[in-house]
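Marked as duplicate of an earlier ticket. Keeping the data here for the record.
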Amino acid sequence: MIYFLCLILFSIGLYCVLRKRNLIKIIIGLGIMEYAVNLFFILVGYRLEGRSPIFAKEKIILSMVDPIPQALVLTAIVIGLAVTALIVAIAIRIYERYGTFDITQIRKLKG
């Protein structure tokens, strides 16, 4: 059930990216999609009543949360933040040049 909610969240972000014409709304859609994928990865590594992935010499932990998805999500958050900052900077430069965020009104970029 919870995986289905991740799919719905991803679908909302995908709808924003594909159907909206405003650059800011497209950027927000990309952020929603990123958070949906990060949530899915965290849920894959989750175990009910799981303990933190810290080993102790005295006792054996049988139900431990998988640390690999946590590390991947931390890396993905940092990379996603850098990509979002780059996209926002590009959107600001486009706005300065064309005076609009509407992608239908922006002329073709010249190289």
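See parent ticket for discussion. Residues 38 and 77 are 8 Å apart (CA to CA).
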